[in-house]
Amino acid sequence: MPRPLIVREVPFDAWVASFRERALAQGIGTVTFDAAMRGVRPLPDVIRRDRNQSEFTKTIWDYLDTAVSDLRVANGRRAMERHGDALAAIETRHGVPAEIVAAIWGLESSFGAYRGDVDTLSALATLAADSRRPDFFEDQLLAALAILETGEAAPSDLRGSWAGAMGHTQFMPTSWRDHAADGDGDGRRDIWGDDPTDALASTAAYLAANGWTPGQPWGAEVVLPEGFDYRLTGERLQKSPAEWTALGVRAADGSPVPDGGPASIRVPAGHEGAAFVTYANFRALESYNTADAYVIGVGHLADRLAGGPPLRGGWPRGDRALTFDERIELQERLRAAGFDPLKIDARIGPDTLDAIQRWQASEGLVPDGYVDPDLLERLRRN
Hints:
By secondary structure, this protein is mainly alpha-helical.
């Protein structure tokens, strides 16, 4: 049985009335609030989509098949040609490569073609009134109202994804507040209009503020040697590229592991899938979206836009992703078996991966942290 939708036991109109008091206390003007919130309504589909985000519910190969399709690569190269001068200036100013900025643009809105048509205020109000992350989305709604206070956008401009992200590169309102940049020098930070320059500049400014190191790679595909110890995989263990090379790890073309500072090895589809070495800039990209599939998608799309080859490694394409309920069950069974993932939240983050690897090792399995239905079935039999 699917889990029931969890929502606050408060009528939406009553929640809006209580939120109005908090918003006015935070400095939102009465006129702005009443005009902006007059047409706001709850959106049930937003709640359902919040529980089924594709970066977390698709297999990584299904996700990458779309994220880095040949069509997207071709469209991206054309988009970079059209906006080459702007991207070059942005790279010079912020130190973020043009292809990285363009890759985020591609994943977030297909280079501006699909910026979203969901009313941002209604989406944010729906999620703020929900019980899963109310404080986060209430902050976002306050920031969206503050944008209207500045006069840099009108309520009709605030349209985007179901989660409240807006514009060419899908900025959340607090990201606009903290990092929006005037890329074209017209005195506005317009991430919503047809010209993507401000949105692209804002994305570069965001990454620079969140740790992007100029001149270093995000990561690269690698080949692991026969007999590799998969307990060495995961973001928490780092070695120098020379140390990884000494252990037999090689770049996909057979060369030594690229230099980029301390690095981790990730195997998002386990020992039967492609492997990656990742550097500090991987974590900078995680500030945009924490899902490994998304970050690998951005990095690989950027590499392809810059002329790089497709991935050489394969995937266990016969497998499927676990459902939300199955991931909850997986975490609960790991805890019951004495391998506590610390959170029961359906997210397969570092703590859950560590618990899986420890359980796999105890069972004599390859400790690669890979999650699939067979792993869950083995846990059920224990």
